[in-house]
Amino acid sequence: MNINRILTRKSFYLLLIAIAFFTATSSCVSFSSSLPNPSFIEATRISEELDFCGEPVPLQDETVRERLERELIICMDNSDDIILWLKRSRRYFPYIEELLKKNNMPDDLKFIAVAESSLRTYAGSPKGAMGYWQFIESTAIKYGLTVNNDIDERRNFFLSTPAALNYLKDLYALFGSWTLAAAAYNMGEDGLKAEIIVQKVNNYYRLFLYQETQRYIFRILAIKMILSNPEKYGYKLTKDDFYQPVEFDTIKITAEQTIPITVIAEAANTYFKTIKDLNPQLRNYYLPPGNFTLHIPKGTAILFNQRLESLLSKWMNEKSERIYTVQSGDNLSSIAERFNVSVKALMIWNSLTSTSRLTAGQKIIVFPGNNNAAINVPDAAKDQ
What we know:
Elements: H1 3-33, H2 38-43, E1 51-52, E2 55-56, H3 62-76, H4 79-102, H5 110-117, H6 137-142, H7 157-175, H8 178-187, H9 189-199, H10 211-228, E3 248-255, E4 259-260, H11 261-267, H12 272-278, E5 286-287, E6 290-297, H13 304-321, E7 323-325, H14 332-338, H15 343-349, E8 363-365
Antiparallel strand pairs: 1-2, 3-6, 4-5, 7-8
Helix pairs in contact: 3-10, 4-7, 5-10, 7-8, 8-9, 8-10, 11-12, 11-13, 14-15
């Protein structure tokens, strides 16, 4: 037999063995690396007694423990969320804690805001819930919040928090349990009352509810466990890591006509974005007529009203010089092209939408393109 053929065949077999060994080894390494970290498993072990608002959690019930462990593991698998919860907690919790204490309500209720919105201003849901406490519109209005095309106070932390606590207080009066009150906050009081009547039990842990509500209290408990003892779960933040409460001045404005937020920003020696950030309830570019309490940067309230009056007068004079009377055949695109501006700018200046129809004789504001402050609307385009 040819010695070269024997060597070739032997080399081929050795190569196959080497590939098989490498594949098996790699597979083992990959499998091992996918196993949970021992400290992760240790962190999910619940050895201490637990309560929600002073009401014991029946951890001796294995199904209850399993439901809590599930939510704890899911929360811990989202470390980016946990880090942001921790960072934001220092900004928002002090105010919630102060109100809870003033109303003789349990401190644990603050964790509902984390479960609802992750403490995000513009958090929303497919069902139309909005803001830090995820109010639906009807409940928000019932508890004194304004929700319309111009204002949505669900997005204002300092306005929505008292409303949420009043709602929770009413739910507690209705159900006699903070655990059931929180469940009702999630699914609605009428739905929970119906389930209690049908199932003939008023213990949250014994009720069969919608999956979201069955998990809801356990998610809040998991959040409480992590935020109350972050180091146990591997999160050690320094003082500088936390977001601090925002400082601001509070001013009152009586608007007899619409006021551009840019004018308010200029009167407060700041930017449009800053006013919108401090007052997320403002939905548009203008403050509508009415009485309002707004937040402006700390230290800018002094002489604010005088500056606003002067700037508003100036803006009104400029506005009167920027009026264009819509002609027959005009539309947003043709007017925008004529004055070298964008259609979007026209819509903002005049509170229009993409579906708004212009009519001949209608008066709109136009700030021509390029240097808006220096270029006047042509005389032929002015209202005579």
